[in-house]
Amino acid sequence: MHLEHVLKKLQNRTPGILGGNQYSKFAVLLPLIEKEDDLHVLFEVRAFDLRRQPGEICFPGGKIESTDRNEQHTAIRETSEELGVRFDNIKNVYPLDYMVSPYGTIIYPFVGTIHDPASMKPNPSEVAEFFTVPISFFLKTKPDRYKVHFKVTPEENFPFHLIAGGENYNWQMQQVEELFYLYDGKVIWGLTARVLNHFLDVIRDE
């Protein structure tokens, strides 16, 4: 193989995430609404008969489809479908940092404002209810933090004889910090709490 051929393959290449094509990709929207002279964050409670995570609190969102123009379009489309809000009532949509989770997914979070929230008609097949929380509550409330540790378990026929240290190889153990916000009997945790906490870090005055 010639050097010119290699360089041609590398020119103008946009780097991505190594192995990213094996990940499921999702986009979510952190919805903001103006309410009672304050700014509120809107949350959904997932329908209780859903196969995945029934009854959990989340932001609207879903899997990126091939027909979506981009990740932002996915977040807006899913919000419109789940909350029954018109596309043109979802405005000021801006990206947050995307996340590569240890569970084989890449999450693209966005923040946006929902106008005319009184017109919302949530889809009962996906949303049991929705509620809002003033941003002021989160800005003065620190989440509880707990760690989840992952254990490395190689498969039965793993070739330990091919690696330095063999069965005593010093694996780098991974851990994930889970955040919990408690509000009026509601538990906001997991991915939703992580996106929320990142958003608060972005807007918080130093």
Automatic annotation (TrEMBL):
Pfam families registered for this protein in UniProt: NUDIX (PF00293)
Cofactors (names): Mg(2+); Mn(2+)
One annotated GO molecular function: coenzyme A diphosphatase activity
Record keywords, A-Z: Hydrolase, Magnesium, Manganese, Metal-binding
Top-level lineage group: Bacteria
Domain Nudix hydrolase span(s) in chain numbering: 23-156
Name under which the protein is recorded: NUDIX family hydrolase
The species this protein was found in: Bacillus methanolicus PB1
